[in-house]
């Protein structure tokens, strides 16, 4: 066993043993896990071990101001992994440091929930390439300074995974990998306390399996079988798969649906303490075997639930989380021309401990779920239900004066609940303006788009673009003509990358060039020392609900961002931030009395 691994393992051995034995009371399982860790370290390439050494010397590498990410589907962007590698110059042109590829492990076709139903956690889907293609891609990305992030679907497997198939065939070892029941007694008890994720499209939390004559726990869709993490073999096998992918060069794992992974009767089966034990063990395993690799949690919960997923500075869990709440509140502020909810939500995030770090974004593969803080809404005199209905109808384009073009997702007429789909550009009004050939409306739409991106990139954490946003990609309505895709309105913003539009990015006075240049300005903004990992970030009272004020401070340097979320000129006054500030162009600004243009993002600095 190499010295590096021995040293790192010695640091974590006692805690790992304590947590594993406390959870599983299974010494044999612990020994299997430790063997898998040693084997994974020995199989790790010299190049990746060198990366481990460099990252160990710079553990906050992912918090640097130059971090700039993008998320995409391999097939929609380039067809497959080999072709994606050929598109690397396009990614380098954007100075990306982080690339999140949507699920690409072997999956059933056509119904796979966008790749989140996995048939084999160790193998790339043949439609996208081979493991060798993935390894070659990660090597080329590393040369370009880009870290690859992949989803790791922790909660469930596809119902066609070899474990599930063995369970269906009656193998008791693999039946223990899932939650199976011969009658409805226990499932009915679960249903009393466990919320439904998709009450309309996938009602209930259990699915009858005719082959086994048993009920299977299926939190999401009927073809996604929940894994039983009370079985140590499940944890060990899933950890083995993560290490295998890490050795192919994956540097970041987005652990999907992590709050759901532990099930306990009489609870909501969300955010249970055992979840944190599992994530903590996983973090330690990675720190021993491949410390260059980090964890990004998908935790779609209120801010008060988030801190626990980072662990503590002494016993950390996730390195970073998706900033879902701010994404939703940014869109809410734009439609309502009111930043008060957004400010309150950011204040809640800024109150979290210093070890909390976020990936900020506007759009991704998923919908916009209008999970706003109802207590804050009521305190501000906002009716939560009416506000939610206003927002999703507004972004559907089904509200007087709406500039947006989108669609509803999972509309429930009984509860009045719905989510929203669409690309950033289409939701900001670009698509509607182009259809009407309205130059003024297009100008405003671009300003909205850039306003949101600038505010998002100013936040604590680092920004991640949705592929196509950099060239104002519009909705892909052609999904309605595909019988395999028509049932899921999220496919509206999951369309093939428009390479013809991308060619226009260098042509002045084109829509694509405006957005391309706007993204470059974001990168220039984030080169400022006030975007260092140790910068202090806070909101400020602008004395105007339509204007969001954010302050970044590091040492004697202060950077202020003012964001006008309205289509009208707006004034702002920032108390106690006296003195003279300057725009990047050198214009003097006094923060006691600032005038902003419609949808303007104004950045000023004290030096």
From TrEMBL:
> What SUPFAM superfamilies does its record include?
(Trans)glycosidases (SSF51445)
Q: Name one GO molecular function term.
A: amylosucrase activity
Any idea what this protein is called? Glycosidases
What's a single GO BP term from this record? carbohydrate metabolic process
Q: What is its EC number?
A: 5.4.99.16
**Coiled-coil region list:** none
- What range(s) does the Glycosyl hydrolase family 13 catalytic domain occupy? 71-523
Supply the alphabetized keyword list: Glycosidase, Hydrolase, Isomerase
